[in-house]
Design goal:
With 378 residues, the protein is an alpha/beta fold. It has two domains: 2-126, ATPase, nucleotide binding domain (Nucleotidyltransferase, domain 5); 160-357, Nucleotidyltransferase, domain 5, CATH 3.30.420. It has helices at 44-59, 86-94, 103-116, 136-139, 145-149, 160-173, 226-234, 240-249, 252-257, 263-271, 275-299, 309-314, 316-323, 335-339, 362-375; strands at residues 2-8, 12-19, 31-39, 66-71, 82-83, 121-126, 182-188, 192-198, 201-205, 304-308, 346-347, 354-357. The chain has a six-stranded mixed beta sheet, sandwiched between helices. A six-stranded mixed beta sheet has the order 9-8-7-10-12-11, with helices on both faces. Strand 11 (346-347) and strand 12 (354-357) form a beta hairpin. The longest helix is centred in the C-terminal third of the chain and has 25 residues, at 275-299.
């Protein structure tokens, strides 16, 4: 079975083509046949046609039987991958208010794929789904109860596809089941989140009601006293939309450093003595360290700490700074292996708590979930 995986951004479309053989159905093993990315997308239908042209040789004249879509926000409606119909489309659209930078573009790709591939099964795989196992003590805010029970204002968490992949991949590397481990997974990129995975289940994560909460990110502020927002609106005379744009697009590494949202640029400037760049780096690493400590406490320890994402996989200085001072908690980097972990999965520790760099593969997991969904395999 050939499965196309689509990940749509505000002006981009990433696509991967997988083949899953029937005899490998129970394991969900998938072979990637082709992939690519289209930037500066103004029309998702045109972008999809370009993707088909690029994938032509890999398709070999065969048809695409299913399309798996990454959808960022599934609210409390979707706890697993689902077949997309008109009603599911409406629900994803209604959730756009909670992820305005993501869900509308995911929906554009869904509509384009349904139009161009009317005979293919369309499946939505949600970033929030992995976190539906969080207990109420982890997802409830301290608001009047009706905002939780009626308005569904609560912490949902994101990057669930990535956290689920790397935590299960760690267990696979140990030749054991995920249920045997407590793992802290750090997805660090332009968007960042940390997750406490207790025996295969997400029990807490740093992102919340929207992807804005938690760590300092590329352009997002992360954790913030709510009174700051009210101050900006009432005293600085900023409109709610201006504040939303500031917190999502002009804050984080970019806002603190005044240079860039790219950690490579931040590190280069810090090495040249730029104090704002150094502050951005320090805040970024300190926030991550605090969450790791919190999740060690919440789970009563951990067997592994996993780094993934563009920064997590590629920035040795970030990993070293985050882990520094955690030795008494059982976390100690091997500085040589951390400096040159090599490609692929790599253990970079010499401590009771294993530290790993595991490249995420969200597309593979989406392909597997899509296959399982349309085949009715758990």
């Amino acid at each position: 079975m050939k499965i196309l995986v689509l990940n749509a951004g505000s002006s981009s479309l990433k696509f991967h083509l997988f083949e899953i053989a029937a005899e490998a159905a129970t394991q969900g093993d998938a072979k990637r046949l082709g992939h690519g990315a289209i930037e500066r997308v103004s029309n998702m239908g045109d972008a999809l046609r370009t993707a088909f042209q690029q994938l032509g040789p890999a398709l070999g004249g065969e048809r695409i039987e299913a399309v798996g879509h990454r959808v960022v926000h599934g609210g409390d409606l979707f706890h697993e991958a689902v077949l997309i119909d008109d009603e599911v489309e409406k629900q994803i659209d209604a959730l756009s208010v909670l992820a305005p930078l993501h869900n509308p573009h995911n929906l554009e790709a869904i509509r384009a794929a349904r139009s161009h591939l009317p005979d293919a099964k369309q499946v939505a795989v949600f970033d929030t789904a992995f976190h539906h196992t969080m207990p109420p003590r982890a997802f409830a805010y301290g608001l009047p109860f009706e905002y939780l029970s009626v308005k569904k204002i609560r912490r949902y968490g994101f990057h669930g596809i990535s956290h689920r992949y790397v935590s299960s991949r760690f267990a696979q590397l140990q030749a054991k089941a995920p249920e045997e481990y407590r793992i802290i997974t750090c997805h660090l990129g332009n968007g960042c989140s940390i997750c406490a995975v207790d025996r295969g289940r997400s029990v807490d994560t740093s992102m919340g009601f929207t992807p804005l909460e938690g760590l300092l990110m590329g352009t997002r502020s992360g954790d913030l006293d709510p009174e700051v927002v009210l101050y900006l609106i009432t005293h600085e005379r900023r409109s709610p939309e201006e504040v939303r744009r500031m917190l999502n697009n002009d804050s984080g590494l970019k806002g603190v450093s005044g240079i860039s949202n790219d950690m490579r640029d931040i590190l280069a400037a810090a090495e040249q003595g730029n104090e704002r760049a150094r502050l951005a780096f320090d805040v970024f690493c300190y926030r991550a360290k605090k969450y790791i400590g919190a999740y060690l406490a919440a789970m009563g320890g951990a067997e592994a700490l996993v780094f993934t994402g563009g920064i997590g996989e590629n920035s040795a200085p970030v990993r070293e700074q985050i882990c520094a001072g955690l030795e008494k908690l059982g976390i100690r980097l091997d500085r040589t292996r951390n400096a040159q972990p090599g490609p692929g999965d790599c253990k970079i520790s010499d401590s009771r708590v294993q530290i790993w760099v595991i490249p995420t593969n969200e597309e593979l997991l989406i392909a597997r979930d899509t296959f399982h969904c349309i085949s009715s395999i758990p």
